[in-house]
Amino acid sequence: MTEKVRVRFAPSPTGFLHIGGARTALFNWLYAKNRGGTFVLRIEDTDRSRSTDEYIDAINEGMQWLGLDSDEGPFRQTERFEIYKKYVDTLMNEGKAYHCYCSPEELEERRKEAMSQGKPLKYNGKCRSLKEPVPGVNPVVRFKMPREGQTVVDDLIKGTVSFENEQLDDLIIQRSDGTPTYNLTVVVDDVDMEITHIIRGDDHLNNTPKQLQLYKAFGYDVPKFAHLPMILGSDKARLSKRHGATSVTAYYDMGYLPEALVNYLVRLGWSYGDQEVFTKDELIQYFSFENVGKAAAVFNPEKLLWLNQQYIINTPPERLAELVIPFLVKEGVIVEDQAVNMQWLSKAVTTLKERSRTLIELAASLRYYIAEDVEYDEKAKKKFLNEKSRGLLVELKKGLQSMTEFNEAELKKLFTSIAEKHDVKLGKIAQPTRVALTGGTQSPGIFELIDVLGREKTVKRIEKAIGTIQ
Ligand code: GLU
After folding, report:
1. Residue 78 and residue 47 in contact, taking contact as beta carbons nearer than 8 Å
2. How far apart are CA 406 and CA 346, in angstroms?
3. Given the DSSP bridges, would you call strands 72-76 and 97-100 parallel, antiparallel or unpaired?
4. First and final CA of the chain: distance in angstroms?
5. Structural domain tally of the chain?
6. Quick one: pLDDT band at residue 244, thresholds 50, 70, 90?
7. Is the confidence at residue 93, as pLDDT, over 80?
8. How far is Cα 236 from Cα 247, in angstroms, rounded to an integer?
9. H-type helices in 423-454, by residue range?
10. Do residues 228 and 9 lie in contact, with contact meaning Cβ atoms separated by under 8 Å?
11. Cα of 343 to ligand 1 centre, how many Å?
């Protein structure tokens, strides 16, 4: 029988969902989907001074946007204190943990002393053998780490990593105010939630031997571990704000498609031959730990931008039209609640998607389709709206007004006949027209441009352009 896979994403809500967290969530999600397993979301909010509801909302929002729905949860650790307490009590009763009354000042003193003597900075075990409680002091609870031997982490990505037990501290598992600490809660929850695979950033690798000792103390089977390589900035330093936006929602704001970001994130550490663009179904099908690299991954914003463009090109126009609406509002092209003909917008989007790297760029280019009027680029105006083009524009205007069928093929015929009559190249008419219609010299093909813009707007703008030439 194959084992039922259960994985979890366990963010601490002390900040927004960032690139590294999103990648961890994604690898968990993909592995669950690949194995027909369950993806659990657990909010590790025991650090009450730094955790906020706003960050929890932001994490949920980011995951939702990326399409990483959880099958169970979100659970919140602050709602589970009773459970942790029971586990701490068990360890106390079995003599595997002890009360420690050493004050922070005392510990600091000893730390300094150890440092000056070049000794390891770990708790000296003073309270391990204490018989009587110290009156008037709320103790912390420490876990008795073994002092000899090794703890071996068998990692699906890193391979075998050994830790000397004498380096491991007698871990504080409960603070003096009675609240549990990270290493305890994470193990209790992973046991309680029957997690089979722990997939997380390798910044947690040093915690794993401590957690393995807790599993052992509780007598539980150890899950499998997969520690993901770090994500670095282009300067090879750990990815941080210095390298640009790191929160997932910032990528929404910048006009990225969630599919593009997912595709980008998965390639931070994982590969499949030299394929770069994957559908979600392909990712689910191909995902495995064998293809996760050991080396740190480097975050490359240009590649993300490139991928985003690929996704914009390949996304059905109807969906792009829907996605671009909030950006049209943000760019001031339309006002909120303004009715937009979606069928028309899809058509307009189709003419622009090849030249848009983000939804913001797409929204900005849509401006000349939607706005009542255009503003001329001064250089373009000077070069193309002048005496030489005036006659052509007048003739074009007349031609447009008398067309019976208004479509790309008919438009082409009209342009061609005017060009032939005046013995000029098509561009001599197209470029001034383009400036008249868009204000600049860059746009989709002139016929599709006019077709999408419609006769009324086109004629009005050409009239205006003629007017400026006087
Ligand atoms: N809450 C931890 C963090 O946000 C993750 C714990 C884990 O995955 O084991 O870094």
Report:
1. no
2. 19
3. unpaired
4. 85
5. 4
6. confident
7. yes
8. 19
9. 427-438, 446-453
10. no
11. 45
**Across residues 80-91, what is the average pLDDT?**
97
Q: Which of 441, 274, 442, 252 is nearest to 354 (CA)?
A: 442
Q: What's the rounded Cα separation, in Å, for the pair 69 and 55?
A: 17
Length of the chain: 470
Q: Say yes or no: 103 and 222 in one domain.
A: yes
* Rounded distance between C-alpha atoms, residue 412 and residue 59, angstroms: 52
Q: Is 364 a domain residue?
A: yes
Q: If you measure from the C-alpha of residue 416 to the centroid of ligand 1, how many angstroms do you get, rounded to a whole number? A: 66
Ligand 1 environment, Cβ below 6 A: 10-12, 44, 186, 200, 204
Atom of ligand 1 nearest to the CA of 9: 8
Q: Are 347 and 394 contained in the same domain?
A: no
Distance (Å) from CA 110 to ligand 1 centroid: 29
List pLDDT tens digits, range 358-371.
999 999 999 999 99
- Please give the residue range of the domain that contains residue 348: 317-370
Write down the pLDDT at residue 242. Answer: 86
> Are residues 117 and 189 part of one domain?
yes
Report field, pTM of the whole predicted structure over 0.90: yes
**Residue 203 alpha carbon, nearest atom of ligand 1:** 10
H helices of 70-158, in order, are: 81-93, 104-116
Residue 308 within any structural domain of the chain: no
Mutation choice for ligand 1 from 6, 55, 200, CB with most ligand atoms inside 8 A = 200
CA atoms of 191 and 162, how far apart (whole Å)? 23
Domain membership of residue 312 (yes or no) is no
Out of 8, 19, 50, 204, mutate this one to test ligand 1's pocket (max ligand atoms within 8 Å of CB): namely 204
Measured by CA distance, the residue closest to atom 6 of ligand 1 is: 10
Domain closes at, from 276, 301, 326: 301
**Residue 241 appears among annotated catalytic residues:** yes
Q: Quote the pLDDT of residue 461.
A: 97
Element (H, E) at 150: strand 150-155
pLDDT in tens, 34-66: 999 999 999 999 988 999 999 999 999 999 999
Residue 410 belongs to domain with CATH number: 1.10.10.350
CA 179 / ligand 1 centre spacing (Å): 17
Same domain, 347 and 449: no
Q: Domain holding 156: CATH number? A: 3.40.50.620
Rounded distance, CA 444 to CA 456, Å?
19
Same domain, 218 and 87: yes
Q: Which is catalytic among the residues 119, 241, 388, 413? A: 241
Spatial distance between the Cα atoms of 386 and 377, rounded to a whole number of angstroms: 14
Residues 383 and 352 in one domain: no
The SS3 assignment for 93 reads helix
Ligand 1, atom 7: nearest CA belongs to which residue? 10
